[in-house]
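User: Can you recover a sequence for this backbone? Please restate the input before giving your answer.

Assistant: Of course. Working from this structure:
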């Protein structure tokens, strides 16, 4: 790590020793700062939500925006608190932060011995994903026991080297020996290297197409024509993996429910665009059930060839 990354992450680890309730107290203050003082991407959030939910009244829109910024502040708080784990996995389990409510979809996917792609999104607290796929949580849910060596968490490198190193280290604060974080540009190479043994690849798949990537039409997603990257879906098709959607739902402050839905048992047997569309259908249902749970600050439709503001009609 760079010196600046060591200093910042060291401060985060010190602050992380404070009880989670203390962090939530500061989260309430941070919510006010983000939403009302600095108005962090307020125009983007408002435009995204109003276009996605044109039938929302302005009061409903205001309440959803307020709930979103509260959730965003809680993500910051939980991420800093998590930095203080110091390799202690029981710390996150003792707070009952994650509950698995639906394992059937993932258990079905695991029947495919070639491998499993779990597609997720920027719902819940995605920064803690590496700590979800562990033996304790899934055995308690009656599901599959994951070994760290067989589980890969895919991420996109951020532009700042310092913050990329900070986030990389922070995601595994309770699992310091875990080496399965995989940059998205390397994931196919890792899949090919692991060919012949069943591994699970957890892939966030809701981003807008990168500048260097080809966008493929999803159709209407959240009331807007949407383009997306095939990414993990194309890789699963090539490798013959099963694909499952992970729903990362909120169940109250500091509580999340995890559910899995099987999208395809063998991605090689269908067009990856069709698998991708199944994912966006499942994601849309999840977002509609709790609109404030998704990350609305990103410009999801900035590259869409079909973007149209339906609220102005």
């Amino acid at each position: 790590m760079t010196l600046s990354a060591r200093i910042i992450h060291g401060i985060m680890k010190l602050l992380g020793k404070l009880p989670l309730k203390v962090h939530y107290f500061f989260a309430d203050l941070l919510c006010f700062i983000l939403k009302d003082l600095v108005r962090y991407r307020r125009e983007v959030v408002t435009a995204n939500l109003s276009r996605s939910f044109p039938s929302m009244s302005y009061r409903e829109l205001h309440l959803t925006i307020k709930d979103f910024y509260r959730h965003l502040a809680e993500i910051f708080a939980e991420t800093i608190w998590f930095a203080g784990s110091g390799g202690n996995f029981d710390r996150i389990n003792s707070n009952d932060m994650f509950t698995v409510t639906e394992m059937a979809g993932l258990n079905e996917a695991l029947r495919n011995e070639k491998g499993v792609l779990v597609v997720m999104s920027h719902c819940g607290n995605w920064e803690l994903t590496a700590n979800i796929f562990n033996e304790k949580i899934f055995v308690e849910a009656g599901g599959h026991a994951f070994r760290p060596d067989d589980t890969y968490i895919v991420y996109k490198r951020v532009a700042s080297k310092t913050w990329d190193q900070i986030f990389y280290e922070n995601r595994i604060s309770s699992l310091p020996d875990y080496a399965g974080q995989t940059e998205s540009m390397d994931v196919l190479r890792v899949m090919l290297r692991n060919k012949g043994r069943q591994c699970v690849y957890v892939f966030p798949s809701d981003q807008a197409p990168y500048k260097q990537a080809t966008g493929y039409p999803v159709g209407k997603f959240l009331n807007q024509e949407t383009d997306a990257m095939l990414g993990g879906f194309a890789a699963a098709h090539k490798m013959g993996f099963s694909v499952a959607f992970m729903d990362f739902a909120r169940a109250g402050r500091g509580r999340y429910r995890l559910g899995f839905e099987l999208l395809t048992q063998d991605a090689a047997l269908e067009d990856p665009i069709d698998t991708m569309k199944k994912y966006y259908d499942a994601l849309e249902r999840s977002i509609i059930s709790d609109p404030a749970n998704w990350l609305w600050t990103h410009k999801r439709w900035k590259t869409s060839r079909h973007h149209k503001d339906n609220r102005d009609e």
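That completes the design. Residues 3-312 form one domain.
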